[in-house]
Amino acid sequence: MRKSLQATVLLLTSCLLSTAPAYAEDEALIIAPEQQKSMGLQTADLLQVEAYPSANYSARAMIPLNKRHQLSAPLSGKIVALNYVHGDVEVGEVVAELESPEYLQMQQQTIAVLADLEVAKQNLKRAEALSKSGTSSVKNLNSIRAEVTKLQAEKQHKIFELQLAGMNEKSLSELLKTQKTQSPKLQVVSHVK
């Protein structure tokens, strides 16, 4: 019985498609009421839904710790302290401490840029004094000014890299003031709750 009904629907569909003229996408296929009656078709207008049945259910979502947040360090290195294995972590808490040769290298590069900048500033002062007396060319003065500008931009870039790596403000200001490398330990701090 079911197969004969499916066969009838398929036959009816193929007959309609073969006898109907080709219509554009926006045009509707119109079947006269007599044709609908003879084919036994019944239609109804679609109604707009005014409400969606729903209910509130109390529940508690349980998400495994390894799926909730992924912990990663900004630099490579050896973990020397792990302060949290599970549980809630507040924003700003030190999750782990990392000893990183890459972190030391970044500090050394910053110190090198600071030293080069200091020398370039001294050269600029000397070139400006010589330019006023007429013993130095304007080209030489402009070249030294460009070098100072380039080193100042590089200094800002190195500071920004250290901040992105996780260096705190106290350590950064100490590095800039003393121009000596700080501890190779980098604290990995939580930024999300």
Explain this structure:
With 193 residues, the chain is mostly helical. 52% of the residues lie in helices and 8% in strands. It contains 6 helices and 3 strands; from the N terminus they run αααββαααβ. The protein has helices spanning 2-19, 33-39, 65-68, 101-133, 138-165, 169-178; strands at 78-82, 94-99, 185-189. α4 packs antiparallel against α5. It is elongated.
Broad shape? elongated
The end-to-end span amounts to 62 Å
The order of strands across the largest sheet is 1-2-3
Mean pLDDT rating: 78
- Proportion in helices: 40-55%
Number of helices: 6
Taking the sheet with the most strands, its summary is: 3 strands, antiparallel
Outline:
The chain is mainly alpha-helical. The protein has helices at residues 2-19, 33-39, 65-68, 101-133, 138-165, 169-178; strands at 78-82, 94-99, 185-189.
